[in-house]
Amino acid sequence: QVQLVESGGGLVQPGGSTRLSCTISGITFAGHDLNWYRQIPGNGRDWVARIGHTGGGYIKAYLKGGFTISKVDGENTMYLDVDHLQPEDTAKYLCNVYGPYDGPPRRSHWGRGIQVTVAS
């Protein structure tokens, strides 16, 4: 069974930083896209960042400069480091794994999400 568990987040002051972690069990990273999304109550999930199955890293254009995605294969853990947080970054952050690309069927797996609240 595939499980994704997020950790980190919480209350952060404006201008501060946080690191979100997502530990994945039940699959390996190989052949999968690794994604972070965020969701504000009443809105849909908004894609934030990806490490593609071929290794490339991507950040949503208007978020560049403050967001960094990374992974540690041996720990089956992915990270989202966020700097210069602002109140508009307040959201539930979710990790996602999609794949495998080297054979069907492709599936999308989600964590439950972790809340990040930016306030003084």
List the helices and strands and how they pair.
Elements: E1 3-8, E2 10-12, E3 18-25, E4 33-39, E5 45-51, E6 57-59, E7 67-72, E8 77-82, E9 91-99, E10 107-110, E11 114-118
Parallel strand pairs: 2-11
Antiparallel strand pairs: 1-3, 3-8, 4-5, 4-9, 5-6, 7-8, 9-10, 9-11
Give an overview in words:
The protein has 120 residues and is mostly beta strands. The protein is 0% helix and 53% strand. The strands form two sheets. Strands 2, 4, 5, 6, 9, 10 and 11 form a seven-stranded mixed β-sheet that branches. The radius of gyration is 14 Å and the shape is globular. The mean pLDDT is 93.
In short:
The protein is mainly beta and 120 residues long. Helix content is 0%, strand content 53%. It contains no helices and eleven strands.
Succession of helices and strands: EEEEEEEEEEE
N- to C-terminal separation? Answer: 40 Å
> What is the typical, i.e. mean, pLDDT?
93
User: Which stretches are poorly predicted, pLDDT < 50 over at least 5 residues?
Assistant: none
Number of helices: 0
Structural class: mainly beta
Q: Choose one word for the global shape.
A: globular
**Roughly what fraction of the amino acids lie in strands?**
over 45%
Gyration radius (Cα, Å) is: 14 Å
The overall strand count is: 11
Q: How much helix is in the residues?
A: under 10%
* Major sheet description: 7 strands, mixed
